[in-house]
Amino acid sequence: MTLIVRRAAYRTAMFALALGLVVVIWETYKAVGPTDGGKLLGVRILPRTSEYAMPHVWDMLSRFGRPEVRGSDRTVLASVLAGAWYSFRLSVAGFVLGGAIGVGLAVLMARFKLVQRGVLPYLVVSQTVPLIALAPLVVSWGGKLEVGPFVWPRWLSASILGAFLAFFPVAVGTLRGLAAAPAASVELMQSYAASWWKTLVKLKFPTAVPYMVPAFRLGASASVIGVVVAEISTGLKGGIGRLIIEYAREATGDPAKVYTAIFGAAALGLTMAGVVVAVDVFVMRNRPKESTT
Amino acid sequence: MSAVNIKNVSKAFNEGKANQVDALRDVSLDVKQGEFVSLIGPSGCGKSTLLRLIANLLEPTSGEVTVNGKTAVQARLDQDYGMAFQQAGLFDWRTVRKNIELPLELKGWEKADRRTRADEMLQLVQLPEFGDHYPWQLSGGMQQRIAIARALAAHPPLLLMDEPFGALDEMTREYMQGELLRICAATGTTVVFVTHSIPEAVYLSNRVVVMSPRPGRITKVVDVSLGGDRSEDTRNRTAFFEAITAVREGLRGMHAAHVGLGNDDR
Ligand SMILES: Nc1ncnc2c1ncn2[C@@H]1O[C@H](COP(=O)(O)OP(=O)(O)OP(=O)(O)O)[C@@H](O)[C@H]1O
Ligand SMILES: [Mg+2]
Fold first, then answer.
1. CA nearest B190: which of B167, B207, B174, B209?
2. Are B131 and B119 in contact (CB under 8 A)?
3. CA angle A189-A194-A196, nearest 5°?
């Protein structure tokens, strides 16, 4: 237990150090870099360091505490938190949906080699479709969908796109994990005349866990990306994606503001990853420690 | 009815391909109910293969295997045997007790019964305080004892063991041999046992089957007339040494024949 705590403390310290380093680099470049950027043969190769392009880190942070619009009593922090929370819930929905589909597909592919040969190439191709192009399509399909009292909510389209990105790493990781059971263990289950289903539950899934955990971690951040991109490209209200566009429009007058929304998106991704890591530590607590890194 | 009947069994891996291996050729063996039979022979002679044929983890290329008067498939489906492999093969994510309970779980035993039996088994292999440990917290020899406990847990009428004591130290090994004999005598369990150790084979067995390599065949069967109740004294008896000599000669004779063959080839 102390080992886990010490490792967590170490990782947090390294994270804080890396963050501090980024701030130092940002501010150093801002101090010494050319205000109008550096040009070589008419091509800009060094970014501008003006207040407009690179606000001070403390300006970004203090912007959180000030009102969102002049005269309002709602701070930027409140808005960003609300937006991040909204997007977080959509991402979780997308992640759960994508995770379930991914695991389901992996089980089908592991069970039927024919399915694996038929489906796997299409899964790979599916991930090459640009999300920006797909987002409006999903929204318009969803808009046409109405089954009885069920009316497709707009947010569901964003979650679907999150799921669309999340299911792939989960499917591939789980498929690899399901194939990882040692031949001797498979034979042992065979010697007990265990059914395919029993073998899956008692042997294959437990051996797959170390492969599934990193896959889920990828899936979680993929879901966040899917949701935020879908929010941006469809203009869905309420989430962090919408805040990024809105604040970016004000960038000329209020350059620090857009960074607050970007911080919000980063915090959202970190939170998702953090949740999965916590689950990881929990499910792997009784496994041999060498094989978990 | 014999516990295991093997009739003219041959096994070839990768049959018809360039890398075909004739692992067993025309092997016949009959094991009576309650009998303890050991298989001994040089590495690669097909001992494990023969055991896996009995377990129905492999299908013979030709010939027939019956277990308890049923086909090998049916015997496996009825879980008529327990098996201990060369490697312990415990599940990392289960506690030691849960590992022992695995075959009972698959047979649909009640939780309380499983626990009682698992604790009995832990006593038997002398690791009663390790029930809540995980396998990777145990030494290799301890893991192997847990694997044996798992194989015995359901009290199967037939035990198939592939070098189960190979990883144990001499003292534990002799203790486990004694315990195995005691359990088998008490429960009337039939055992087919693979080993590399001549004294172990002789001490445990009613019959020792000597095999020759590639293609694996039975070259000699040594009857061990040491009687039913064996103890540490047994290891000092003349009959014990006579049997050891007989097995050794079986193995050596085959070796000589093998060298002779090699010379003819050249
Ligand atoms: N799955 C397989 N595919 C191809 N060849 C195999 C396979 N399993 C075993 N063999 C071959 O069959 C022969 C007998 O193997 P087996 O494992 O039965 O030997 P063994 O007598 O148990 O040896 P050891 O004492 O080293 O355990 C060997 O030559 C081996 O290479
Ligand atoms: Mg072997």
1. B207
2. yes
3. 100
ipTM for this prediction: 0.84
**pLDDT tens across B39-69, in order?**
999 888 889 999 999 999 999 999 999 998 8
Can you say whether residue B43 is alpha, beta or left, with left for phi > 0 and alpha for psi between -120 and 50 degrees?
beta
- B/e letters for B84-107, b = 16+ CB within 10 Å, e = fewer, are bbbbbbbbebbbbbbbbbbbbebe
Q: What is the pTM of this model?
A: 0.81
Is a pLDDT exceeding 70 seen at residue B265? no
CA distance B118 to B98: 8
Question: For strand B217-223 and strand B207-212, is the pairing parallel, antiparallel, or unpaired?
Answer: antiparallel
Residues of chain A contacting B78 with CB distance shorter than 8 Å: 193
CB contact under 8 A, A202 and B102: yes
**pLDDT exceeds cutoff 80 at A41:** no
Q: What is the mean pLDDT of chain A?
A: 86
Task: Flag if A194 and B89 touch (Cβ within 8 Å).
Answer: no
| B99 in contact with ligand 1, CB cutoff 6 A | no
B79 touches chain A (CB under 8 A): yes
SS3 B229: coil
Structural tokens at position A266: 């980063």
